[in-house]
């Protein structure tokens, strides 16, 4: 039940999980451990937007890893991928875009870059595709597809209809591996295979061969491509785990047990790719805390051990005059962008105020008041709070009401404010009446398994406090 980890959460997750293999050189050095180059039953990698991780591999190991990650903190959420890594489908092209085509695979839509296929692709075409890169439910991107069929793997991949290649690795023992790939499949060795022994290489190739045979059977027994959409092979079990603010700070504590870690290490790195180098530099030049050369410690920023919100926003944003997105996450994993807002105020204590101008007519949800073009919404967003208020006014200053959103702790990143909405909210109407709304939606989300009960209970407590305060 081994696991391979890569990305900005690697140190913390290596400390959290067990049976780590194929560790990178910095992780091996940091943990002063061998961490062998054996086959991994699951892989964990940071998502492109650094908001969480994707876990893929054998069902039992993926379930175990996801279960452990859910326990990191109350605001950790997880969802299964609609289109898992390696899934092989008969798909139908539904839309042509400039760089590629949208393909309906039945279980979901994927994106096939034109560079990944040699044939001309048009709307209505049927073709066989494989999921090369799953996409988290909160992202705008669709899963990336390709037409080459392969068995995904880190020590070795098997490519259907390909020729033997060494890939990014070139293990000296490759020619001595006793297992032979199935007919029509060729091995492509990964970079980590260079450090693996003969038993590990053979075990990895045998596991890949089993998946290859399952793909061959699915293609042989399944309907023709033209009768799709259809799934020929389910691929590797794949799940996405989203870390909230409390989760990132809990992972900081895990990392701090191993090496010097500044307050908000993962919070800062998740906000901007450019911040990673800055965080690494700060931690490298500050001495590790602890008497007698013990490992671990805390690298302080302005405000002592507190998260250095002022320094981070001064360096990376947002600043007054900037524009930020309001990324309104949903408990089912989707992300809804509420729009872009202008930052009109920022303080070093963790609060920004943003302003949006309404462009359309309608009604403000739950408030029941009319929305008109020219209305202004001013939202106060405080880093780490489980709620935030938005005050709506007409162009001439007349109150349209106040809406308080209850959510996972707010994170003010350079280009976006992020959180996950927890359904229950509190409103204050222009006449001063206060009402708590959407408890039924929160209950339904708990019943559907989208919101864990401890998180739901925290949301109810926050809503109680806000309602009493208003």
Give your account of this protein's structure.
The protein is built from ten helices and 25 strands. The chain is α+β, with helices and mostly antiparallel strands and 470 residues long. The protein folds into four domains: 3-80, no CATH class; 88-235, OB fold (Dihydrolipoamide Acetyltransferase, E2P) (Beta Barrel); 249-316, no CATH class; 323-469, Beta Barrel (FomD barrel-like fold), CATH 2.40.380.10. A hairpin with a 3-residue loop joins strand 5 (88-96) and strand 6 (100-104). 44% of the residues are buried. Mean pLDDT is 93; it is low at 289-305.
Chart the SSEs and their pairings.
Layout lengths: L2 E4 L3 H7 L8 H7 L10 E5 L5 E6 L1 H12 L5 E5 L7 E9 L3 E5 L4 E5 L12 E8 L10 E3 L3 E2 L4 E5 L24 E5 L8 H24 L8 E4 L3 E7 L1 H12 L8 H7 L3 H11 L23 H8 L6 E7 L5 E12 L4 E7 L4 E2 L6 E2 L4 E7 L4 E7 L5 E9 L3 E2 L3 E13 L5 E4 L1 H9 L5 H17 L1
Parallel strand pairs: 1-2, 15-24
Antiparallel strand pairs: 2-3, 3-14, 4-14, 5-6, 5-8, 5-13, 6-7, 8-9, 10-11, 11-12, 15-16, 16-17, 17-20, 18-19, 20-21, 21-22, 22-24, 23-24, 24-25
Helix content: 10-25%
- The helix count comes to 10
Return the CATH architecture of the largest domain: Beta Barrel
Q: What is the end-to-end distance?
A: 51 Å
Give the class from helix and strand content and strand pairing. alpha+beta
What integer value in Å does the Rg equal? Answer: 25 Å
Tally of strands = 25
Properties at a glance:
single chain; 470 residues; alpha+beta; OB fold (Dihydrolipoamide Acetyltransferase, E2P); 4 domains; seven-stranded mixed barrel; six-stranded antiparallel sheet; 25 strands; globular
């Amino acid at each position: 039940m081994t696991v391979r980890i890569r990305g900005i959460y690697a140190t913390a997750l290596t400390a959290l999980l067990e049976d780590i293999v194929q560790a990178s050189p910095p992780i091996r050095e940091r943990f002063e451990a061998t961490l062998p180059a054996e086959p991994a039953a699951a892989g964990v990698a940071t998502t492109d937007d650094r908001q969480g991780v994707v876990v893929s591999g054998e069902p039992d190991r993926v379930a175990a890893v996801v279960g452990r990650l859910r326990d990191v903190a109350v605001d950790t959420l997880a969802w299964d991928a609609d289109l898992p890594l390696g899934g092989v489908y008969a798909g139908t092209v539904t839309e042509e875009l400039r760089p590629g085509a949208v393909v309906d695979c039945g279980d979901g839509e994927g994106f096939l870059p034109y560079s990944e296929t040699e044939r001309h692709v048009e709307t209505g075409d049927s073709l066989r595709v494989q999921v090369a890169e799953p996409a988290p439910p909160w992202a705008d991107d669709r899963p990336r597809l390709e037409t080459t069929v392969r068995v995904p793997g880190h020590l070795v991949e098997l490519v259907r209809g390909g020729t033997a290649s060494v890939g990014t690795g070139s293990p000296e023992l490759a020619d001595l591996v006793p297992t032979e790939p199935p007919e029509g499949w060729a091995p492509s060795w990964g970079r980590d295979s260079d450090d693996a022994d003969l038993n590990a290489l053979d075990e990895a190739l045998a596991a890949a061969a089993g998946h290859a045979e399952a793909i061959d059977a699915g293609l042989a027994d399944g309907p023709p491509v033209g009768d799709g959409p259809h799934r020929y092979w389910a691929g590797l079990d794949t799940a996405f785990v989203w870390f909230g603010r409390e989760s990132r700070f809990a992972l900081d504590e895990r990392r701090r047990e191993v090496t010097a870690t500044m307050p908000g290490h993962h919070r800062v790195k998740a906000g901007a790719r450019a911040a990673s180098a800055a965080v690494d530099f700060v931690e490298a030049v500050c001495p590790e805390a602890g008497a007698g050369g013990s490992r671990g410690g805390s690298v302080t920023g302005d405000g002592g051990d507190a998260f250095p919100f002022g320094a981070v926003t001064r360096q990376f944003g947002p600043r007054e005059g900037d524009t930020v997105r309001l990324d309104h996450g949903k408990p089912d994993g989707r992300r809804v962008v509420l729009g872009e807002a202008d930052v009109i105020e920022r303080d070093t204590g963790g609060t920004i105020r943003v302003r949006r101008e309404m462009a359309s007519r309608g009604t403000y949800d739950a408030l029941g008041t009319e929305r008109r073009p020219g209305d202004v919404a001013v939202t106060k967003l405080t880093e780490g709070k489980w709620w935030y208020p938005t005050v709506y006014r007409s162009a001439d200053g007349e109150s349209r009401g106040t809406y308080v959103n209850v959510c996972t702790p707010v994170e003010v990143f350079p280009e976006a404010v992020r959180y996950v909405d927890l359904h229950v909210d509190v409103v204050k109407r222009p006449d001063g009446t206060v009402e708590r709304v959407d408890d039924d939606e929160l209950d339904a989300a708990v019943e559907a398994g989208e919101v864990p009960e401890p998180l739901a209970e925290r949301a109810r407590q926050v809503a109680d406090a806000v309602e009493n305060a208003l």
